[in-house]
Every structure is written in C-alpha cells, then in structure tokens.
Design a protein that fits this description.
- The structure holds 2 protein chains of 2 kinds.
- Chain A is mainly beta.
- In chain A, 0% of the residues lie in helices and 50% in strands.
- Chain A is built from no helices and 11 strands.
- In chain A, strands 2, 4, 5, 6, 9, 10 and 11 form a 7-stranded mixed beta sheet that branches. A 4-stranded antiparallel beta sheet of chain A has the order 1-3-8-7, with no helix packed on it.
- By secondary structure, chain B is mostly beta strands.
- The chains are: A mainly beta, B mainly beta.
- The interface between A and B is medium-sized, with 26 and 26 residues.
C-alpha cells in the first residue's frame, strides 16, 4: 500500500517556541493531505486540509495563524505550530489518499507527539 | 455536518466474537470505513463498505445498512493483540474530501 511518512515522531519544546512537523508521501503524489489532532482517549479531529500550491482549508475553530500549513510540493506538507503552549500538546497525524480506484482507505503517517513544557 | 456515534468501551474474552456498532448522521455519504489504532500509534485501515451488506476480511467483517445509517465491525476469534481503539469513518462523495471519524471504541480483550 501507499506509504506516508511523518517526522518527527515526538518533540518536546518550550512554551512560546514554534515546532514544524513534516508529512511526506513516499511512493505517490498527494495533491491533498489532511492534518488531524488527537487528544488522549479521544477521536481524531480534522484540523485542516492541505492543498498543493494553494492555501489550506481550516476547520471551524482552528486558528490558521497558529497552525501554519504549507504544501509546497506533491509529496510534502508541513504543519508549524507557532508560539506553542501546553494546551497544544497533542498527537498530530497527517494522512493522504492516493489516486486510483476508491478503496475507502486513508493512509496515515506515524504521527507526531508534541509536548509543550 | 457529520456525526458518528460508537460505544466508548467494550470488553470481550479471548477467542470470542465482538461487535462494535457505529451510527451516523451525515449530509452526504460515500462509504463507511473502519480503522484500528493501538495506543501511541497511527490508525490502520481495516475495512470499507460502499454498499449495503457484509464485507469479510479474515477475522474482521464489516456491515453497512445505509437505510438505517448504521454499520458494525465484527471481530472473530479475538486475540490479545486486538486490544486497541476502533474508529468508524465516513467520507462524503466527491473525490478527495475530508474524512470524519467516529467517537471511537476502546476494546479490551481479556484472557
């Protein structure tokens, strides 16, 4: 199946700093990628849809100036958490859907666990 | 909007069969998927139903009834490694659009 790679797997940062998370599709081109956030014992909540070559589409309640998304190529999307605070500590997961027949399958990166001190 | 409801927790015995239900309310519907997520890991795809009926994939089966806005995941011959969270998810029609996940069910398999 398609492979999506996410980096870093975990990161610890100080409050007020910025953190960048990368999401790469390794064996397919992804014009669209999705960024999810998951708090402990909760479901995956879609934060934004990343579109190659254009602005990301953010879900209601997600601050676009705080969670900067850049999708500069067909294989790379980045999420930057700016001025991070402890309440931003969470598990961030990216996903993508390859082209071709629809199998209903969403391919996920490994996830990035962010801890803000 | 979309909402998908699941039981929060289910406990079952090793070797048994367990069913995890999902009821949904959506503004558009294309298909129902199921994902497994172990603690600390990313979700992995299990099954997908675009049409009504039962889809079988090894020990896992998934069922969909679009008229009832209902589906379930059936796990047979439970193993300890099946202890995980399970999420149903819907994708609206129209290509690369966002997938909405259910509330999730934490399955605990006991000896």
């Amino acid at each position: 199946g398609a492979v999506v790679s996410q980096h870093p797997s975990w990161v610890i940062c100080k409050s007020g700093t910025s953190v960048k998370i990368e999401c790469r599709s390794l064996d397919f081109q992804a014009t669209t990628m999705f960024w999810y956030r998951q708090f402990p014992k909760q479901s995956l909540m879609l934060m934004a849809t990343s579109n190659e070559g254009s602005k990301a589409t953010y879900e209601q309640g997600v601050e676009k100036d705080k969670f900067l998304i850049n999708h500069a190529s067909l294989t790379l999307s980045t999420l930057t958490v700016t001025s991070a605070h402890p309440e931003d500590s969470s598990f961030y997961i990216c996903s993508a859907i390859p082209g071709g027949p629809n199998t209903g399958e969403l391919f996920f990166g490994e996830g990035s666990r962010l801890t803000v001190l | 909007g979309q909402s998908l409801e699941q039981p929060s927790e289910v406990t079952a015995v090793e070797g048994a069969i367990v069913q995890i239900n999902c009821t949904y309310q959506t503004s558009g519907f294309y298909g129902l998927s199921w994902y497994q997520q172990h603690d600390g890991g990313a979700p992995t795809f299990l099954s997908y139903n675009a049409l009504d009926g039962l889809e079988e994939t090894g020990r896992f089966s998934s069922f969909l009834s679009r008229s009832d806005s209902y589906g379930y995941l059936l796990l047979q011959e439970l193993q300890m490694k099946d202890s995980a969270s399970y999420f149903c998810a819907v994708k609206p029609p129209g290509g690369y659009q966002k997938v909405t996940f259910g509330t999730g069910t934490k399955l605990q398999v006991i000896p």
